[in-house]
Backbone:
């Protein structure tokens, strides 16, 4: 049996399971999740043992540092996984929600009803907890999930996926609703992307090489690859507030997509704002790179290159540019931003209004940190990624963003004239 | 200049125009539309003259019948176009609509705001009125549009697109917001589908050869190619109502995607229902094809082949099958339906509830004709197609379905802990 035939057979089972899962009651889904949480806690030592095997292989192949850190499970991480499964059980079920309803002059009653998307494939890298986190969110949203994790976490992923499938089976749900692709062969991704008839959506969670591997996908993608976020300190900014927001946006967690990469400062306040701000950044270990005007104010820092303005550092590095106007700031963000999250700090209502209207990013902030672009911070109770797509879902994705809808139309014999 | 360079240059201008159009006021958009409606009426004779040229070419290349009918413009059709432009002006502007808003415990105010999609390409066939209809709907939705019509309507399309662009220009709007691809070269479609950085969405309006031409598109598609609709006459149906609904679904306009192609009848009522129904269909010129059980009741008709159940006739042909249960009907629809529109006729509330829950089509009807799957019939005031996609928009698409959203988050200095 070829790899393609083998995966296709798995996909067909996942598709079949999606039909019954779509009709599964909220109670049964939640009971399944609660029993999974229990099983995770009860089997913590087996999970750690599988993870140990993955870590040994990774170390012997020369992996180190942050990579191993992401790959490592601990008792605390397993407890956190179990807790997050219970939290998903507690979330409202999006399936069957009536989004809108209205009646027509001819008496037809129309309801727009939320329904599962179908089959969702999630392709992720080395964090084994994603197997559980992404698996249970998709499950709760009523869609079958096809999980494809990084090969470095294969032992732990295989075990976690098996536990998830076992919980479904114990609840009388077709376990193919959680399908795990257990081959480390990278061809698997090529096969997944060729089967739009079996997969409705691929959610990739990974970097540039995954993006390349998915180019030309026949299955729609919900990408969230890039986050190149800006903060614009307007001339009418409360400069103390601006300092707190900028510091938080850059320093609180520099490795994530909603961290600030480019700081824009209005020329009228630059000389007043930048020295104290720069001092604080430098004290926190941030490497600053400035345009000429910035370097004239803070001479100690590097000059930014053209490339810097388009670089998502994901690190303690920040590029700073002084602009003459809000127009220049907005144009700069359009040109260099990734459309994920951009902020203005201003006390001027008309500047705020222009910024919110003219900056076309998934999340636009007035006087707050870009770091809030996150499903939990938005109150979604979960996060299944942050979309930089313009279609279907944009920005933080919760359970509802994993669904679609249908119209239910009730009549009493109406026909069209 | 190669065709690719030429089209790419047009696309870049359309992208630039989309940014300013997105900020255009409702008043200015509506004034533009009203002046276009006037221009259409004032220039009717020039439009008819261009159409005459198209018709001559089409006739001399052997086109005939329904094709020429679709291609033909008349004074009445031009008046209808102008009227529909005025109707679009009267529709509410979707841009800027606050879809939801809430506040977070930390005081952040979050608004989900409807915004334009960006650049939408519409690829259509021989009806020249689509240039105006699709052009003005996209314009009102705030997106730039790239129009690519069938080569047989080139003269009329070119003139209509020019009139549309002129109306924009006269209102001080960048005319590249309505970009017309005027080459008859089919390579143009291949070029459009390669540029996701310039086009956010392609809406194809056409048949199988267009579907094939768009395979492997790097730009997301919103297809609405197929409509294979079912009506299921349940054992608890009001048979007189069922007869009216089935007759309407098949006969009122057989050439459209929401017409019924397969009729399913519960065995318990088949002998009572089918003879009168068949008589009425046959009198209306409908060719009936039945499974064995149906042919036993109406011996005069053809036997349906396996292929019949999967064929969208778009014609006065209907396949009829007798089923033993609602389960069989639902399974049959899952297997053979296109997910566009399916109906049940029943007085049994539990059968209706099962059907609406288990049939996963864009529009599911209880006791009404599938022919209501239409933006106008749904009260959208417009129709930009009927999507069989599961992502972004499903079923009848109005103005709102051409948009996306962003989140506007207002704070007073909040930072993330």
Residues:
């Amino acid at each position: 049996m070829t790899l393609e035939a083998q995966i296709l057979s798995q996909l067909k089972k996942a598709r079949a399971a999606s039909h019954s899962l779509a009709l599964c009651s909220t109670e049964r889904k939640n009971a399944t999740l609660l029993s999974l949480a229990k099983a995770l806690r009860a089997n913590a030592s087996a999970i750690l043992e599988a993870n140990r095997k993955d870590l040994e292989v990774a170390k012997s192949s020369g992996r180190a540092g942050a990579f191993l850190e992401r790959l490592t499970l601990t008792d605390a991480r397993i407890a956190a996984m179990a807790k997050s499964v219970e939290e998903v059980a507690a979330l409202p079920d999006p399936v069957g929600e009536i989004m809108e309803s209205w009646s027509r002059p001819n008496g037809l009653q129309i309801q727009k009803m939320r329904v599962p998307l179908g089959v969702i494939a999630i392709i992720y890298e080395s964090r084994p907890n994603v197997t559980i986190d992404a698996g249970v969110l998709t499950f709760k949203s009523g869609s079958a999930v096809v999980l494809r994790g990084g090969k470095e976490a294969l032992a732990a992923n295989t075990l976690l996926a098996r536990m998830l499938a076992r919980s479904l089976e114990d609840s009388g749900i077709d376990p193919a609703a959680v399908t795990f692709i257990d081959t480390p062969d990278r061809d698997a991704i090529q096969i997944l992307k060729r089967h739009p008839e079996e997969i409705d959506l691929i959610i990739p969670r990974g970097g540039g090489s995954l993006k390349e591997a998915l180019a030309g996908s026949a299955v729609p993608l919900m990408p969230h690859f890039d986050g190149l976020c800006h903060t614009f300190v307007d001339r009418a900014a409360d400069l103390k507030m601006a300092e707190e927001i900028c510091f938080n946006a850059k320093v609180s967690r520099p490795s994530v997509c909603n961290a600030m990469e480019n700081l824009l400062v209005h020329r009228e306040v630059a000389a007043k704002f930048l020295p104290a701000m720069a001092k604080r950044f430098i004290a926190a270990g941030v490497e600053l790179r400035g345009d000429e005007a910035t370097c004239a104010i803070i001479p100690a820092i590097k000059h930014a290159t053209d490339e810097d303005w388009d670089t998502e550092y994901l690190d303690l590095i920040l590029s700073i540019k002084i602009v003459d106007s809000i127009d220049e700031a907005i144009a700069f963000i359009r040109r260099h931003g990734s459309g994920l999250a951009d902020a203005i700090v201003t006390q001027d209502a008309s500047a705020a209004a222009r910024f919110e209207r003219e900056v076309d990013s998934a999340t636009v902030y007035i006087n707050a940190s870009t770091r809030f672009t996150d499903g939990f911070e938005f109150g979604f109770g979960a996060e299944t990624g942050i979309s930089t797509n313009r279609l279907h879902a944009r920005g933080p994705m919760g359970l509802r963003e994993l669904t679609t809808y249908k119209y239910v139309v009730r009549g009493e014999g109406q026909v069209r004239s």
Residues 197 and 219 of chain B are 8 Å apart (CA to CA). The first strand of chain B starts at residue 98 and ends at 103.
